[in-house]
Amino acid sequence: MGGGARQRRGRVTITEIAREAGVSVPTVSRVVNGRSDVAPGTRARVEDLLHLHGYRWRPPGARVRAALIDLVFDDLDSPWAVEIIRGVEEVAHAGGVGTVVSAIHGRSGDARRWMTNLRARASDGVILVTSVLEPVLHDELRRLGVPLVVVDPAGSPALDAPTVGVTNWAGGMAATEHLVGLGHRRIGFVAGPPRLLCSRARLDGYRAALDRAGIPIDESLIVPGDFYPESGFTGCAALLDLDRPPTALFAASDQMAMGAVEALRRRGLRVPEDMSVVGFDDLPEVRWSAPPLTTVRQPLAEMGKLAVRTVLRLTRGEPLDSPRVELATDLIVRSSTAPPGRGFA
Amino acid sequence: MGGGARQRRGRVTITEIAREAGVSVPTVSRVVNGRSDVAPGTRARVEDLLHLHGYRWRPPGARVRAALIDLVFDDLDSPWAVEIIRGVEEVAHAGGVGTVVSAIHGRSGDARRWMTNLRARASDGVILVTSVLEPVLHDELRRLGVPLVVVDPAGSPALDAPTVGVTNWAGGMAATEHLVGLGHRRIGFVAGPPRLLCSRARLDGYRAALDRAGIPIDESLIVPGDFYPESGFTGCAALLDLDRPPTALFAASDQMAMGAVEALRRRGLRVPEDMSVVGFDDLPEVRWSAPPLTTVRQPLAEMGKLAVRTVLRLTRGEPLDSPRVELATDLIVRSSTAPPGRGFA
């Protein structure tokens, strides 16, 4: 059973390979080192033998470690994660940089394991998406000289790292003004997690639009959520249980908007006839939700692209134009919004 | 402007660092090499100076390159990609392995650039998702000794690599039998791209279920699609334009099912009252589509996990139990299916 011997790596010497291939030792060495001065037929024969004997092929450039960046999420359970990955990968791939994707689940143990892995692979930069690192890990990145860029700043604005965000406040205002412009006066709001700055900004945009329209803010129309569909379902149900439910609802994420639409459907209410619904994100699938969702578009892939460009500039020691960038949001009007109907108006 | 000098790496010698820190050269050396026999205060002072002078910190383990696997998609434009990434990342992360995500867009140039990057980062294994590599790239992986595992086999079944798939045929049959069991006799089918084996298997499962129920197959009820929502919309519209439209529809992907639901909504038809709709995938968001979608669940994250375990076994030279594994699909019944209504039955 010669196969067993072939499995063991490095047991066969270069000299034996040379003898078996009928070439000189320096020729084998030239093949191993990826040099071009070897006849193609000879190279193929030697490579086959190296492979056969379990030599792990090391391409010529392998000793110079290739560039890697780490893209870190709290959780990989949202369809918007893939939009950010798509943008990051596109720019990184084109530049020969590998994108290592990780999730740390907001758990200290996972974050520490990630840091250990990051050190071991000597990653060149980190993009952190809507997640918070403990100060000790920030310090460690700084000590390692690994630059950090934060996408969609979630935690303390005092965080000492460049950020790429979107105009959450302006987006929240645009969504609410759209509903006001359609004639709605009682507009519900399903909020995002309060620990995230973007949640605060969207809520403040909602308040600002109502203020500007001279509509008093009714705190009973503001319900908590966590960006996931379940909380949109629950939040919308709570609003429907009010003595005077709203005629329109602005959910601070598309997923919560989808949960809200389902809560309405369960009660036999139609969108937009009985209630208008606006989301936030513009995930690809909400173009195809029933009905297609009016929403505030976040340029997620563009945010990813900009984050890579920023982190690569930092690895090269180049200055940044600005340490904090906010990309514009756009209101996308589809079929889930209309003037208030005969519902509870 | 001392800052300028600090930016330039390696200009300051270990001797100078030692002098500035007020310690001996061997002490600086011990810090640089990550040894433990340095007092914490001294270590911190030396590390700060190293950082200040732009020394790139190399952790002790950095010379031994960390494990990496490459996870390759054709496109990162589908919400099911994130499910696979989630599964792969979870197992890889726990094992200290980094997951490098790439998209090659079915384009030769992108695939070659990816291969160049893969060689440069000396990745340990490759997981290829519903994508096809040119034979020359397969040969190169083999020559590099980098094991390959294919998720959801898309191309030639003769491909010389272990595969992780799902029971697409059984899933197609279960979806169709569910509709037959509800009393449907005219069941439309929106197919996936014919180049993918999984599309063929789902279609064959549909045919087998109809055969078994003694329902003659009407080829006019089978329309082409490409897994994306638009094609579900178009396919469903084509079925509705038939003289005798079906009373139920099985779409070979959830995204096509969502497009079909929207086509029905646009014509004022309701799901499931006017037409039942079944999808395939069980993406997280279809729990929240209006109505929640009956679908065939693919365990996407489980497929990712199994693929990592398989590729890691191969990197260690361990034998596989089986080179081809198919995980079971499950029919998940929600609210988009019901007995045929008064519609066109």
UniProtKB/TrEMBL annotation, chains A, B:
Signal peptide, first to last residue: none
Record-annotated membrane-spanning stretches: none
PROSITE patterns linked to this entry: HTH_LACI_1, HTH_LACI_2
Keyword terms: DNA-binding, Transcription, Transcription regulation
SUPFAM superfamilies: lambda repressor-like DNA-binding domains, Periplasmic binding protein-like I
Keyword flag Nucleotide-binding: no
MF terms in GO: DNA-binding transcription factor activity; transcription cis-regulatory region binding
Domain HTH lacI-type: 12-66
Presence of keyword Membrane: no
PANTHER family: LACI-RELATED TRANSCRIPTIONAL REPRESSOR, LACTOSE OPERON REPRESSOR
Protein name in UniProt: LacI family transcriptional regulator
Species assigned in the record: Streptomyces dioscori
